[in-house]
Write a structure and sequence with these properties.
The chain is of the alpha/beta class. The protein contains eight helices and seven strands, in the order βαααααβββαβαββα.
Length: about 300
């Protein structure tokens, strides 16, 4: 069984990204995480403000907007989720800040942690109970604890993808839980620029199909693996036009692939996913409304 979920945030003013990011930096400081002036959030903020002022596109704008959109969701979820066992530990939040802004295809321990915490934020904002623990995260599904292993794919090479999936399988096996493998495929979407919605959806579906074939056709021990969560996003900046500020369009895609052959599990998993994504989409849209009051 497989199904797609996706939503987009259209025409977000660039100044809103700078505003939200500054607010998230301030809140993170209140939580006890030191956000140095040389950190990725501050670097991203400088790029966003420059773009806001002159509308000139900079190669690091994509990395800056990506960090802003994910960082705001992570900090919002982290502040709401302050409890023992939270995946948003001060240590992990600090580690997320350590690397400079880099494109999706580059190695970055900070970006790896960021993807893990983004997943945790999405689960939390979707109403699911999520805690830290092997393999990377643990969520409660009905009365069962399910593991989630998060892997950011930085190469288009098929062997690299297979290697990362095998690592995730070993993690899930070691946790002694059933689990999902979440793959960040942003690298495969980087070339999508200034395409219409129909083309965007078609290319996204084709990329997910290709990964499904690459992963599904491999022989690896997956008795413990319930399925795959394929995550990707594409975005586009619209330059300044007349007196209007530059604007931003974002599309997020997820495909859930259930690999276990269990007819009783399929409808329950679909209901869980649909409920999760619906609540998460509502939370994200609220956070990015122009008239939103920062409520952590």
């Amino acid at each position: 069984m497989e199904w797609d979920e996706g939503f987009d945030i259209r025409n977000t003013p660039s100044e809103l990204f700078a505003t939200r990011l500054q607010q998230a930096i301030d809140v993170l400081g209140l939580m006890g995480v030191r956000v140095k002036r040389s950190s990725r959030p501050h670097e991203a903020l400088r790029h966003l403000k420059t773009f806001q002022n002159d509308g000139a596109f900079d190669p690091k704008i994509d990395a800056a907007k990506r960090l802003a959109e994910e960082f705001v969701l992570i900090v919002s979820a982290a502040y709401r989720c302050r409890r023992l066992g939270t995946p948003f530990s001060l240590d992990k939040m600090q580690r997320m800040l350590d690397d400079p802004l880099v494109p999706s295809g580059q190695q970055s321990p900070g970006r790896d942690v960021q993807f893990e915490l983004l997943l945790a934020a999405m689960f939390h904002l979707g109403g699911a109970e999520v805690v830290t623990g092997e393999p990377d995260l643990r969520i409660t599904y009905r009365e069962e604890t399910i593991g989630v292993a998060a892997k950011r794919i930085t190469s288009l090479n098929s062997s690299t993808l297979s290697t990362r999936v095998r690592e995730a399988v070993r993690q899930i096996n070691g946790s002694r839980l059933r689990g999902w493998i979440a793959l960040n495929l942003d690298t495969r979407f980087e070339s999508l620029q200034r395409v219409d919605d129909e083309v965007l959806l078609r290319v996204a579906s084709e990329e997910f199909d290709a990964v499904r074939r690459e992963v599904g056709d491999k022989r690896w021990d997956r008795e413990c693996v319930m399925g795959l969560i394929l995550h990707g996003r594409a975005a586009e900046w619209t330059p300044r036009r007349g007196g209007e500020a530059p604007r931003y369009k974002l599309a997020w895609f997820q495909r859930w692939l259930l690999l276990v052959d269990d007819a009783a599990t399929e409808p329950a998993i679909r209901d869980f996913g649909d409920s999760l994504f619906g609540a998460m989409e509502s939370s994200v849209r609220e956070i990015w409304r122009e008239d939103y009051t920062w409520r952590m």
